[in-house]
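Listing S7. Sequence submitted for prediction.
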Amino acid sequence: MAPTWEVRLSDPAIRSARFTTRALFALGALNAWYGQAAGDYGAVSTGLCFCVCAAGLFGEDLLQRGYRADRAVLAYVAAHPGATTRQVAQAIGTPERLAARNFDRLTDDGLLTVTTDGVPRVLRSYRLALADGELTETSGS
């Protein structure tokens, strides 16, 4: 049986990928501009393709950033049932407004349920939800 290899990107590699999209966009724009000035329409189309691909990669990075934040919120609530928005925001190091957006997205998707209603948004507490809508009970809570 052949060994399987798993590749994980480090934070510096991810940051460099974010820089790469901007660099690709700039190089594509320069290539398209130079091709237009020189009358080389092959270079123009190649440059425009670079720009479109870089914009797509940048959009995908923004989408994945939201998923990473949702995953961090979900993991914290799984470990700490009844956690409030303020507690989660402080624990994962994100602004309360962003944590509240993550909570809204996760409750809309049915992954979390609100356990305290009638309080300000930052003081609401949340728990994991089961598929049938019942609250989960964990030992020690």
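Caption to Listing S7: primary sequence and predicted structure tokens for the chain studied. Residues 41-79 form the longest helix (39 residues). Confidence is low (pLDDT under 50) at residues 135-141.
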